[in-house]
Amino acid sequence: MNALSPPATSRLLLSLSLGGLLLLAFLVLQPFLAPVAWAGILVYVTWPLYLRLRARMGGRATLASLIMTLLLAVVLILPLVWVLLMMRTEVADAYQRISGLMSEGHIALPPEVRRLPLIGHELGAFFDRLNADPVSFKNQLASWSDYAMNHAGDLMGGVSRNLAKLGMALFTAFFFYRDGEAFVLQIRKILTRRLGPRIDGYIDAMGATARAVVYGIILTALAQGLLAGVGYAVAGVDSPMFMTAATTLAAMIPFGTPFVWGAICIWLFVQGHTLAAIGLTAWCMVVVSWVDNIIRPLVISSATKIPFLLVMFGVLGGLAAFGMVGLFMGPVILAVVVAVWREWLEDAEEDAHEPPAA
Protein backbone atom coordinates (compact mmCIF):
# COMPACT_ATOMS: atom_id res chain seq x y z
CA MET A 1 0.00 0.00 0.00
CA ASN A 2 1.56 3.27 -1.11
CA ALA A 3 -1.25 5.52 0.03
CA LEU A 4 -0.92 7.08 3.42
CA SER A 5 -3.49 6.14 6.02
CA PRO A 6 -5.83 8.91 7.21
CA PRO A 7 -4.09 9.32 10.62
CA ALA A 8 -0.68 9.54 8.92
CA THR A 9 -2.03 12.09 6.44
CA SER A 10 -3.46 14.17 9.27
CA ARG A 11 -0.19 14.14 11.17
CA LEU A 12 1.73 15.12 8.02
CA LEU A 13 -0.62 18.02 7.27
CA LEU A 14 -0.48 19.13 10.89
CA SER A 15 3.33 19.05 10.88
CA LEU A 16 3.52 21.00 7.62
CA SER A 17 1.03 23.57 8.89
CA LEU A 18 2.89 23.96 12.16
CA GLY A 19 6.23 24.27 10.35
CA GLY A 20 4.77 26.91 8.03
CA LEU A 21 3.38 28.89 10.97
CA LEU A 22 6.72 28.76 12.77
CA LEU A 23 8.51 29.95 9.63
CA LEU A 24 6.06 32.83 9.19
CA ALA A 25 6.40 33.74 12.87
CA PHE A 26 10.19 33.77 12.51
CA LEU A 27 9.98 36.07 9.48
CA VAL A 28 7.69 38.44 11.37
CA LEU A 29 9.81 38.49 14.53
CA GLN A 30 13.25 38.43 12.88
CA PRO A 31 13.82 42.24 13.03
CA PHE A 32 13.18 42.14 16.79
CA LEU A 33 15.26 39.11 17.76
CA ALA A 34 18.37 41.09 18.70
CA PRO A 35 16.51 43.63 20.91
CA VAL A 36 14.59 40.78 22.55
CA ALA A 37 17.84 38.93 23.23
CA TRP A 38 19.37 42.07 24.76
CA ALA A 39 16.26 42.60 26.87
CA GLY A 40 16.38 39.02 28.10
CA ILE A 41 20.04 39.33 29.09
CA LEU A 42 19.54 42.64 30.90
CA VAL A 43 16.43 41.46 32.73
CA TYR A 44 17.98 38.17 33.80
CA VAL A 45 21.11 39.83 35.15
CA THR A 46 19.14 42.47 37.08
CA TRP A 47 16.36 40.11 38.17
CA PRO A 48 17.45 39.89 41.86
CA LEU A 49 17.32 43.70 42.07
CA TYR A 50 13.85 43.66 40.54
CA LEU A 51 12.62 41.14 43.08
CA ARG A 52 13.83 43.32 45.96
CA LEU A 53 12.21 46.39 44.41
CA ARG A 54 8.93 44.56 43.85
CA ALA A 55 8.89 43.40 47.46
CA ARG A 56 9.40 46.99 48.64
CA MET A 57 6.54 48.06 46.35
CA GLY A 58 4.17 45.66 48.05
CA GLY A 59 4.13 43.21 45.16
CA ARG A 60 3.03 45.78 42.55
CA ALA A 61 4.73 44.23 39.55
CA THR A 62 3.76 46.91 37.01
CA LEU A 63 5.16 49.80 39.05
CA ALA A 64 8.34 47.89 39.90
CA SER A 65 8.80 46.94 36.24
CA LEU A 66 8.39 50.54 35.16
CA ILE A 67 10.95 51.78 37.70
CA MET A 68 13.45 49.06 36.73
CA THR A 69 13.04 49.91 33.04
CA LEU A 70 13.65 53.59 33.74
CA LEU A 71 16.73 52.70 35.80
CA LEU A 72 18.05 50.61 32.92
CA ALA A 73 17.47 53.50 30.53
CA VAL A 74 19.37 55.88 32.80
CA VAL A 75 22.26 53.44 33.32
CA LEU A 76 22.58 52.68 29.60
CA ILE A 77 21.77 55.96 27.89
CA LEU A 78 23.34 58.65 30.10
CA PRO A 79 26.89 57.17 30.06
CA LEU A 80 26.56 56.59 26.32
CA VAL A 81 25.57 60.20 25.69
CA TRP A 82 28.38 61.45 27.95
CA VAL A 83 30.99 59.31 26.19
CA LEU A 84 29.74 60.40 22.76
CA LEU A 85 29.94 64.08 23.72
CA MET A 86 33.43 63.67 25.17
CA MET A 87 34.55 61.67 22.14
CA ARG A 88 33.20 64.32 19.80
CA THR A 89 35.27 67.03 21.50
CA GLU A 90 38.41 64.98 21.92
CA VAL A 91 38.35 63.50 18.42
CA ALA A 92 38.07 66.99 16.95
CA ASP A 93 40.97 68.21 19.09
CA ALA A 94 43.08 65.18 18.19
CA TYR A 95 42.36 65.66 14.50
CA GLN A 96 43.44 69.30 14.69
CA ARG A 97 46.66 68.44 16.52
CA ILE A 98 47.61 65.57 14.24
CA SER A 99 46.76 67.39 11.03
CA GLY A 100 48.62 70.50 12.16
CA LEU A 101 51.65 68.49 13.25
CA MET A 102 51.82 66.52 10.04
CA SER A 103 51.04 69.33 7.65
CA GLU A 104 53.80 71.50 9.14
CA GLY A 105 56.33 68.69 8.83
CA HIS A 106 57.25 68.54 12.50
CA ILE A 107 57.27 64.76 12.89
CA ALA A 108 60.73 63.44 13.59
CA LEU A 109 61.04 59.69 13.50
CA PRO A 110 63.31 58.45 16.32
CA PRO A 111 66.59 56.86 15.20
CA GLU A 112 65.63 53.65 17.00
CA VAL A 113 62.63 53.29 14.71
CA ARG A 114 64.70 53.96 11.60
CA ARG A 115 67.06 51.13 12.60
CA LEU A 116 64.27 48.59 12.92
CA PRO A 117 64.68 45.68 10.48
CA LEU A 118 62.30 45.35 7.53
CA ILE A 119 60.08 48.37 8.36
CA GLY A 120 62.51 51.01 9.68
CA HIS A 121 63.73 52.14 6.29
CA GLU A 122 60.23 52.30 4.80
CA LEU A 123 58.85 54.30 7.75
CA GLY A 124 61.78 56.70 7.60
CA ALA A 125 61.29 57.27 3.88
CA PHE A 126 57.55 57.85 4.38
CA PHE A 127 58.04 60.50 7.07
CA ASP A 128 60.84 62.13 5.10
CA ARG A 129 58.49 62.54 2.14
CA LEU A 130 55.78 63.81 4.49
CA ASN A 131 58.03 66.41 6.08
CA ALA A 132 59.43 67.49 2.70
CA ASP A 133 56.00 68.17 1.18
CA PRO A 134 53.46 69.16 3.88
CA VAL A 135 51.17 70.78 1.28
CA SER A 136 50.65 67.45 -0.41
CA PHE A 137 49.67 65.91 2.88
CA LYS A 138 47.19 68.75 3.50
CA ASN A 139 45.52 67.81 0.23
CA GLN A 140 45.48 64.17 1.31
CA LEU A 141 43.87 65.14 4.63
CA ALA A 142 41.23 67.10 2.75
CA SER A 143 40.54 64.07 0.57
CA TRP A 144 40.18 61.84 3.61
CA SER A 145 37.92 64.41 5.25
CA ASP A 146 35.66 64.54 2.19
CA TYR A 147 35.48 60.75 2.16
CA ALA A 148 34.52 60.72 5.82
CA MET A 149 31.82 63.33 5.29
CA ASN A 150 30.40 61.40 2.36
CA HIS A 151 30.05 58.32 4.56
CA ALA A 152 28.86 60.18 7.64
CA GLY A 153 25.27 59.57 6.60
CA ASP A 154 25.78 55.82 6.68
CA LEU A 155 27.40 56.09 10.10
CA MET A 156 24.57 58.18 11.52
CA GLY A 157 22.07 55.78 10.02
CA GLY A 158 23.80 52.92 11.82
CA VAL A 159 23.77 54.87 15.09
CA SER A 160 20.08 55.65 14.65
CA ARG A 161 19.27 52.00 14.03
CA ASN A 162 21.20 50.96 17.13
CA LEU A 163 19.42 53.58 19.23
CA ALA A 164 16.09 52.31 17.92
CA LYS A 165 17.09 48.77 18.88
CA LEU A 166 18.06 49.99 22.33
CA GLY A 167 14.65 51.63 22.72
CA MET A 168 12.93 48.42 21.61
CA ALA A 169 15.06 46.41 24.04
CA LEU A 170 14.05 48.69 26.94
CA PHE A 171 10.40 48.52 25.90
CA THR A 172 10.61 44.72 25.82
CA ALA A 173 12.41 44.65 29.16
CA PHE A 174 9.37 46.20 30.85
CA PHE A 175 7.18 43.28 29.82
CA PHE A 176 9.89 40.76 30.68
CA TYR A 177 10.03 42.18 34.20
CA ARG A 178 6.28 42.20 34.59
CA ASP A 179 5.40 38.87 32.94
CA GLY A 180 8.75 37.08 32.94
CA GLU A 181 7.95 34.61 35.73
CA ALA A 182 4.75 33.41 34.07
CA PHE A 183 6.49 33.12 30.68
CA VAL A 184 9.41 31.13 32.07
CA LEU A 185 6.99 28.86 33.92
CA GLN A 186 5.14 28.13 30.66
CA ILE A 187 8.39 27.34 28.86
CA ARG A 188 9.53 25.09 31.70
CA LYS A 189 6.23 23.17 31.64
CA ILE A 190 6.40 22.58 27.89
CA LEU A 191 10.06 21.55 27.92
CA THR A 192 9.61 19.32 30.97
CA ARG A 193 6.78 17.53 29.21
CA ARG A 194 8.96 16.95 26.14
CA LEU A 195 12.38 16.39 27.69
CA GLY A 196 11.62 15.33 31.26
CA PRO A 197 13.20 16.59 34.49
CA ARG A 198 16.62 16.93 32.85
CA ILE A 199 15.51 20.28 31.43
CA ASP A 200 16.10 21.82 34.87
CA GLY A 201 19.83 21.21 34.50
CA TYR A 202 19.87 22.83 31.08
CA ILE A 203 18.01 25.91 32.31
CA ASP A 204 20.30 26.21 35.31
CA ALA A 205 23.33 26.00 33.01
CA MET A 206 21.91 28.72 30.76
CA GLY A 207 21.17 30.99 33.71
CA ALA A 208 24.52 30.55 35.43
CA THR A 209 26.43 31.06 32.19
CA ALA A 210 24.46 34.14 31.15
CA ARG A 211 25.00 35.82 34.50
CA ALA A 212 28.68 34.87 34.71
CA VAL A 213 29.44 35.91 31.11
CA VAL A 214 27.73 39.28 31.49
CA TYR A 215 29.45 40.03 34.78
CA GLY A 216 32.79 38.71 33.55
CA ILE A 217 32.81 40.63 30.29
CA ILE A 218 31.51 43.91 31.71
CA LEU A 219 33.69 43.88 34.82
CA THR A 220 36.76 43.00 32.77
CA ALA A 221 36.06 45.73 30.20
CA LEU A 222 35.45 48.40 32.83
CA ALA A 223 38.54 47.43 34.82
CA GLN A 224 40.79 47.33 31.76
CA GLY A 225 39.39 50.58 30.38
CA LEU A 226 39.85 52.37 33.71
CA LEU A 227 43.41 51.15 34.23
CA ALA A 228 44.36 51.86 30.63
CA GLY A 229 42.87 55.35 30.96
CA VAL A 230 45.08 56.02 33.97
CA GLY A 231 48.09 54.99 31.89
CA TYR A 232 47.00 57.20 28.98
CA ALA A 233 46.62 60.22 31.26
CA VAL A 234 50.03 59.71 32.89
CA ALA A 235 51.73 59.15 29.51
CA GLY A 236 50.22 62.36 28.14
CA VAL A 237 48.21 60.71 25.35
CA ASP A 238 46.02 63.05 23.33
CA SER A 239 42.27 62.50 23.77
CA PRO A 240 42.55 60.12 26.74
CA MET A 241 38.77 59.87 27.18
CA PHE A 242 38.29 58.72 23.60
CA MET A 243 41.13 56.21 23.92
CA THR A 244 39.71 54.93 27.22
CA ALA A 245 36.28 54.41 25.65
CA ALA A 246 37.85 52.62 22.69
CA THR A 247 39.86 50.39 25.02
CA THR A 248 36.76 49.56 27.07
CA LEU A 249 34.86 48.52 23.96
CA ALA A 250 37.78 46.49 22.67
CA ALA A 251 38.12 44.79 26.08
CA MET A 252 34.75 43.08 25.58
CA ILE A 253 36.47 40.92 22.96
CA PRO A 254 39.16 38.54 24.23
CA PHE A 255 42.65 39.86 23.46
CA GLY A 256 41.16 43.01 21.94
CA THR A 257 42.83 45.64 24.13
CA PRO A 258 46.41 45.16 22.82
CA PHE A 259 45.28 46.41 19.42
CA VAL A 260 44.25 49.73 21.00
CA TRP A 261 46.99 50.39 23.53
CA GLY A 262 49.59 48.85 21.20
CA ALA A 263 48.73 51.36 18.48
CA ILE A 264 48.90 54.20 21.03
CA CYS A 265 52.30 53.06 22.27
CA ILE A 266 53.61 52.88 18.71
CA TRP A 267 52.30 56.36 18.00
CA LEU A 268 54.03 57.74 21.11
CA PHE A 269 57.24 56.03 20.04
CA VAL A 270 56.99 57.46 16.53
CA GLN A 271 56.45 60.95 17.95
CA GLY A 272 59.68 60.65 19.89
CA HIS A 273 58.13 60.15 23.37
CA THR A 274 60.26 57.07 23.95
CA LEU A 275 60.08 57.03 27.74
CA ALA A 276 56.29 57.50 27.76
CA ALA A 277 55.88 54.77 25.13
CA ILE A 278 58.03 52.31 27.10
CA GLY A 279 56.27 53.12 30.37
CA LEU A 280 52.79 52.81 28.87
CA THR A 281 53.72 49.52 27.18
CA ALA A 282 54.99 48.10 30.46
CA TRP A 283 51.88 49.31 32.33
CA CYS A 284 49.48 47.82 29.80
CA MET A 285 51.33 44.51 29.52
CA VAL A 286 51.81 43.99 33.26
CA VAL A 287 48.63 45.53 34.70
CA VAL A 288 45.95 45.98 32.03
CA SER A 289 46.43 42.63 30.28
CA TRP A 290 46.62 40.69 33.54
CA VAL A 291 43.19 41.99 34.51
CA ASP A 292 41.81 40.07 31.54
CA ASN A 293 43.77 36.99 32.57
CA ILE A 294 42.41 37.12 36.14
CA ILE A 295 38.87 38.47 36.17
CA ARG A 296 37.41 36.86 33.06
CA PRO A 297 38.50 33.25 33.76
CA LEU A 298 37.80 33.61 37.49
CA VAL A 299 34.27 34.96 37.08
CA ILE A 300 33.20 32.94 34.04
CA SER A 301 34.93 29.57 34.30
CA SER A 302 34.52 29.16 38.05
CA ALA A 303 30.81 29.98 37.88
CA THR A 304 29.96 27.92 34.82
CA LYS A 305 32.29 24.96 35.38
CA ILE A 306 33.21 24.94 31.69
CA PRO A 307 36.72 25.39 30.26
CA PHE A 308 37.70 28.98 29.57
CA LEU A 309 38.79 27.95 26.07
CA LEU A 310 35.16 27.12 25.25
CA VAL A 311 34.07 30.42 26.76
CA MET A 312 36.52 32.26 24.50
CA PHE A 313 35.32 30.31 21.46
CA GLY A 314 31.74 31.09 22.44
CA VAL A 315 32.48 34.82 22.72
CA LEU A 316 34.35 35.07 19.42
CA GLY A 317 32.04 32.71 17.53
CA GLY A 318 28.94 34.37 18.92
CA LEU A 319 30.28 37.77 17.95
CA ALA A 320 30.87 36.57 14.38
CA ALA A 321 27.47 34.88 14.13
CA PHE A 322 25.12 37.26 15.96
CA GLY A 323 26.94 40.56 16.36
CA MET A 324 27.44 42.22 19.75
CA VAL A 325 24.67 40.23 21.41
CA GLY A 326 26.59 37.11 20.41
CA LEU A 327 29.22 38.05 23.02
CA PHE A 328 26.74 36.71 25.56
CA MET A 329 24.69 34.26 23.49
CA GLY A 330 27.68 32.27 22.23
CA PRO A 331 28.92 31.11 25.66
CA VAL A 332 25.35 30.37 26.78
CA ILE A 333 24.78 28.10 23.79
CA LEU A 334 28.05 26.26 24.42
CA ALA A 335 27.18 25.95 28.11
CA VAL A 336 23.95 24.14 27.23
CA VAL A 337 25.87 21.88 24.85
CA VAL A 338 28.33 21.06 27.64
CA ALA A 339 25.44 20.36 30.04
CA VAL A 340 23.86 17.97 27.55
CA TRP A 341 27.22 16.28 26.94
CA ARG A 342 27.83 15.78 30.65
CA GLU A 343 24.38 14.32 31.14
CA TRP A 344 24.97 11.86 28.29
CA LEU A 345 28.26 10.87 29.90
CA GLU A 346 26.50 10.28 33.23
CA ASP A 347 23.86 8.17 31.52
CA ALA A 348 26.56 6.19 29.74
CA GLU A 349 28.41 5.57 33.03
CA GLU A 350 25.20 4.46 34.73
CA ASP A 351 24.46 2.05 31.90
CA ALA A 352 28.02 0.68 32.10
CA HIS A 353 27.68 -0.03 35.83
CA GLU A 354 24.26 -1.67 35.59
CA PRO A 355 24.42 -5.47 35.93
CA PRO A 356 23.50 -7.37 32.77
CA ALA A 357 19.97 -8.67 32.55
CA ALA A 358 19.58 -12.33 33.48
Protein model, in words:
By secondary structure, the protein is mostly helical. It has 2 domains: 33-95 and 134-195, no CATH class; 197-345. The protein has helices at 6-29, 33-45, 47-56, 61-103, 111-114, 120-132, 134-150, 152-195, 199-235, 240-251, 257-271, 274-304, 308-322, 326-353. Helix 9 packs antiparallel against helix 10 (240-251) and helix 9 (199-235) runs antiparallel to helix 12 (274-304). The longest helix is centred in the middle third of the chain and has 44 residues, at 152-195. It is elongated. The model is unreliable at 151-159 (pLDDT under 50).
Domains counted in the coordinates: how many?
2
**Anisotropy-based shape:** elongated
Helix segment tally: 14
| Multimerization status | single chain
- Largest sheet geometry: none
> From the helix content, strand content and strand pairing, which structural class follows?
mainly alpha
**First and last CA, distance:** 41 Å
Task: Please provide the count of β strands.
Answer: 0
Low-confidence stretches: 151-159
Mean pLDDT: 76
Helix % is over 70%
CA radius of gyration is 27 Å
> Beta-strand level of the residues, as a percent range?
under 5%
String of helices and strands: HHHHHHHHHHHHHH
Set down the secondary structure blueprint.
Blueprint: H1 6-29, H2 33-45, H3 47-56, H4 61-103, H5 111-114, H6 120-132, H7 134-150, H8 152-195, H9 199-235, H10 240-251, H11 257-271, H12 274-304, H13 308-322, H14 326-353
Helix pairs in contact: 2-8, 3-4, 4-8, 4-10, 9-10, 9-12, 9-14, 10-11, 11-12, 13-14
